[in-house]
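[Q] Does anyone have a clean structure-token version of this?
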Amino acid sequence: MNNIAMMTGTLFGILGIILGAFGAHALKKILSEDKLASFEVGVRYQMYTAFFLLILGSLGDFGTSLVVWSYYLVTIGTILFSFSIYLLSLANYLKRNFRFFGPITPLGGLLMILGWGCLLISLF
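[A] Here you go.
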């Protein structure tokens, strides 16, 4: 499980760098400042999770169910949070209505908070 957490963190990091560069160069020309700022928030939180998962994989005791829960909650939360932001930011450009993703973003944020909370409780 430690390797899975580290591989997930590495994948999130790679994608975060690619999407960050894409946003800074390609999307800068086609998105409004507000949409680009939202896109960058998704990238930033994805990168936070990449570091979180690398540290969790390096130091976490996955024999503890709370650490396992922490991994899943933070991973799923980041996918819901960041990727819903990416789609919402690109909706106008893609000429798609992704408004139904609006409620998914805060749900993803809540899952990330719960994942951090599980890690905190596991440390007691």
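[Q] Thanks! Anything notable?
[A] Helices lie at 2-25, 33-59, 65-94, 104-123.
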